[in-house]
User: Fold this.
Amino acid sequence: MKISAAAAAALALALGLILVNFTGQCAAALQVGFYKDKCMSADVEGIVFSVVSRRFSKDPTIAAALIRLHFHDCFVKGCDASILLDGSSSEKTALPNLSVRGYDVIDEAKIEVEKACKRIVSCADIIAMAARDAVALSGGGRYNVETGRRDGMTSSASDVDLPSPRLSVSQSVDAFAKKGIGLTDMVLLLGGHTIGVAHCLLFQDRLYNFQNSGKPDPTMDPLLLVKLRAICPQNSPLNRPVNLDQNPLSSFRVDNSFYKQIQIRRGILQIDQELALDPLTNATVAILANRNDFPAKFGQAMVKLGAVDVLADPQGEIRNSCNVTNNNNFNFLRF
Assistant:
């Protein structure tokens, strides 16, 4: 029996969501409400939300930063908060992480949590909670975050091997598969680009010399090309930001607008645009663009991301301070 590409994509989407829930339940180290009976009456998740909410009210761009921080942590050695550790050659110093923000939000949340629940809550869990809260504050709904992670003991820039925005779809599928994340979840997680920005450095080749052709990327909408060339002229600073979702009414909201934009060739990053064009993913993109349940599906995919290679007791530790391991922490947090 033959089925259409759209029907196949819909089936894959449904199966992918079932797999998200199943694998979440099977992650023995993680459970919803892990800290419920471990911190007396303290509402750990509520404390983290308060910190994130305060920052969001002053700077809504912190939402995308916290989601990105979670992704960059989980994709390197798993969700163990290794990205938070300081050091001359720690993950923080790797090129893809030099523009990562949100460390101070996690540190503030850790300080507040420690006041109520001393040396019980991991920094890795705080990252996951903060990312969830960032999604919720951006209109994406509040999904149940699983907790129970332990913090890693090492962090090295040499371990940072994040998928490049210039990868093909098939290469990206391979990169995500190595982390146990399937194609549908990959498309959903890249939908995190519904908020946030990219700097000229990451897409300027598409404007002037795509794949060394001496010409712009032919898949880019001509009007978008003109706009981006004005923002990112040749031989100009490469740190100018551009919204990843080119719908100005939706650039700060977690919704399906991103998929609608890439369908009309208004994707900023190469991988984003190729999602809408590649036969492996274009049908899934079409489904997400034409339904309103992306926020819920995105939350489920974030749960799957948050279960990647987590540490469970007796592995790792519960750090006293998120930027240093306990055996190197001679100045414990003071309250």
